[in-house]
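Renewal narrative, Specific Aim 1. Our central claim is that a sequence can be written position by position from structural information alone. The example that follows is taken directly from our test logs and has not been curated for this report. It begins with the structure tokens describing the chain, in the order in which they were read.
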């Protein structure tokens, strides 16, 4: 076996398909988001504007968040000391879990090192604990959810995206006595659409199923206190487990689940992804704690973000650019070709100082490659108009397809 040849061919395939990923060399400017500095291919840093960060509300730059992190660093030092069981259960973790449980109206919460880990660890553990469990998964669920279901080794049914008739058909075909778990997202991050949560909960009630809702792209963003779509629509009490991230709207790092105390105890006690990994640094937890508390009390960031997103969608449509329909803060622009998507991204960065990463397979299906914009509260009208102008010029220059 020529190992180097196998590895080289694997990378060559990505290049041939036009979906080899290049990571930008970047530093954000503290307190000045979305302004940043790009180092790649330049003789020193070049000023750029970031348009694709998942720090949706710029909370990673918020003075309350950075001050809380500095205070924690000076109070307890950098690291957590190990796993929660051995030495990582700092009081910051206890406080944050209480805040997150309160945010979603649940009895308890459990922190993980990332949203990916929280999905993988929880779903794989839960489905193993339930004998003969069948998981019903939306076709567009995130890779972390798919991994968790796969690692559970249980029966799986994939229902067509947001198709309640198909979900009911699958539920009705299975043993009424079998444990069932319906797994879905509230906001689907690549299309920007929303799950019919009430209808899913109705089916769960009818077929005696548990529900698991990934709110990672909605927590902090929706609801009067930032509890997500389930809070906005008054449905949090009907969902068994609500999962979220601390690295998007809350601006720092980490993941979590909220649910009743019995399920929390089961996951805490059985999930390898929780038991055997060093817990989040208290410095990070302190920052998230400040962000969660701030967004519970303030809607200013959410309102400004929604206004920016609405303006960008309107101006893209006015320019005839192929903006995809989205009812949320995510603004996808369809390209439909990985090579073209990468070229547009490269031109924007090199010529306009605008950074947006192309989204290719396997994140989205082949033929639906796109640019995904996430306008934030600090993207002002002049930035938005400059972006739309740049895109219009590139679309004309490259003779790309406009909206139908």
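The sequence written for that structure reads:
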């Amino acid at each position: 076996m020529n190992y180097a040849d196998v590895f080289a061919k694997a990378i060559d395939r990505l290049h041939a398909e036009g979906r080899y990923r290049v990571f930008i060399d970047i530093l954000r400017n503290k307190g000045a988001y979305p302004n940043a500095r790009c180092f790649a291919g330049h003789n020193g840093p070049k000023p750029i504007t970031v348009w694709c960060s998942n720090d949706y509300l710029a909370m990673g730059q918020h003075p309350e968040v950075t001050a809380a992190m500095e205070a924690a660093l000076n109070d307890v030092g950098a690291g957590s000391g190990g796993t929660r069981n051995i030495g990582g259960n700092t009081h910051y973790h206890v406080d944050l879990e209480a805040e997150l449980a309160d945010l979603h109206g649940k009895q308890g919460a459990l922190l993980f090192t990332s949203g990916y880990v929280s999905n993988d660890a929880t779903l794989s553990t839960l489905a193993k604990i339930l004998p003969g469990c069948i998981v019903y998964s939306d076709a567009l669920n995130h890779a972390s959810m798919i991994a968790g279901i796969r690692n559970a080794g249980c029966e799986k049914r994939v229902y067509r995206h947001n198709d309640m008739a198909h979900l009911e058909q699958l539920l009705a075909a299975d043993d009424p006595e079998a444990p069932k778990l319906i797994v879905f997202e509230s906001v689907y991050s690549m299309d920007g659409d929303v799950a019919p949560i009430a209808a899913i909960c109705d089916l769960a009630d009818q077929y005696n199923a548990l529900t698991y809702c990934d709110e990672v792209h909605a927590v902090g963003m929706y609801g009067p206190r930032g509890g997500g779509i389930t809070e906005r629509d008054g449905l949090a009490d009907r969902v068994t487990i609500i999962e979220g991230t601390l690295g998007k709207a809350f601006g720092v790092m980490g993941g979590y689940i909220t649910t009743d105390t019995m399920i929390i105890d089961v996951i805490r006690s059985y999930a390898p992804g929780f038991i055997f990994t060093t817990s989040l640094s208290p410095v990070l937890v302190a920052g998230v704690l400040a962000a969660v508390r701030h967004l519970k009390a303030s809607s200013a960031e959410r309102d400004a973000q929604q206004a920016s997103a609405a303006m960008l969608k309107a101006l893209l449509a006015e320019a005839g650019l192929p903006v995809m329909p989205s009812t949320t803060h995510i603004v996808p622009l369809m390209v439909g070709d990985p090579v073209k998507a990468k070229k547009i991204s490269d031109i924007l960065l090199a010529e306009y100082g605008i950074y947006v990463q192309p989204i290719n397979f396997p994140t989205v299906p082949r033929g639906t490659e796109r640019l995904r914009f996430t306008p934030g509260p600090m993207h002002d009208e002049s930035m938005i108009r400059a972006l739309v102008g740049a895109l219009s010029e590139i679309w004309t220059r490259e003779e790309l397809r406009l909206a139908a």
